[in-house]
Amino acid sequence: MKAGVLNFPDRRESPTIDQVGVEERAKRFCARSIKKGTKMSALKLAVTMLDVTTLEGADSVGKVRQMCQKAMQPLPGDSSVGPAAAVCVYPRMVKTAAKAVEGSSVLVASVATQFPSGQMRFKERLAEVRYAVGEGADEIDMVISRGQFLQGEYRAIFDEVAACKEACGGAHLKVILETGELTTYDNVRWASDIAIAAGADFIKTSTGKVPIAATLPVTLVMLQAIEDHYERTGKMVGMKPAGGISNAKLAIQYLVMVREVLGEKWLTNKWFRFGASSLTNDLLMQIRKQETGRYQSGDYFTKD
Q: Apex CA 196: angle with CA 194 and CA 200, to 5°?
């Protein structure tokens, strides 16, 4: 998608966020009562929405292969659970991951644009996108330049997202806002509007590498941006909260919120993902608890 055919959004159309209202509404999603049968369905749905992730300096070929196997078969012997939506790795591990998931429905996502800081010349950041796609990435998770955004260089953010979208070719683009560094809900909403207007296929909360990651109120603000865009244009955009979502109870609260804000058609891994490294095992433990009536130790599940 060429940057020239896209329209920079009008800041006046990006609403001011009522902090108290957003936080109170987000709390209400935590109070929903979930019946046992519905809970099992939600747990299994959440597994299919996972971007199973490893983004560590110690990542190795063996670790990535093991993670890919887990994404394809979260509970070996139980085909009703999974597979996950994707695996997410650094660019140099894309080829390993692509080979490991070959023949399955699991996609390969790669972080790019100098994840997590984004502090590199844009030429090199774009080259990293093209490299990851060339290695076999189906999806790119890019980080925006938060420093430029906070300095008011909004057109630069729009242009970098549009250029990354073009560099992706046929790969989908997830745009990481790093909401914990944007400081206000108004900034989160404006950054969401810019990313969507510039061609993002998904907007994503966080890298998971800063202390403040995904929260229900922040995600609600981003969902509202998606909702408004859909009402104006009829075009769906995906959502990916990432970082800090480590237990099944919280994951279900996110699913309740998505259903009530955007509706049932967003409740597929085509439009909603969890970015998680530790959520997978808690979902699997809760599924076993629903099936057997007792908890299994985390030692029964692989760490990666």
A: 120
- Six token digits for residue 292: 């057997």
Active centre residues (catalytic): 141, 204, 240
**What is the value of pTM for the model shown?**
0.94
Asked whether residue 197 is domain-assigned, the answer is yes
Query: Quick count: other Cβ atoms within 10 Å of Cβ 298?
Result: 13
Rounded CA gap, 125 and 162, in Å? 13
User: Which residues sit opposite 176 in a β-bridge?
Assistant: 143, 204
Strand partners, 77: none
Q: How many domains does the chain have?
A: 1
Q: Say if 157 falls within a structural domain.
A: yes
- Find the domain containing 222 and state its range: 81-247+256-278
Q: Tell which phi-psi region holds residue 178, choosing left (phi > 0), alpha (psi between -120 and 50) or beta.
A: left
Residues of the chain with pLDDT under 50: 1-4
- Domain at 108, CATH number: 3.20.20.70
Does residue 43 lie within any of the structural domains? Answer: no
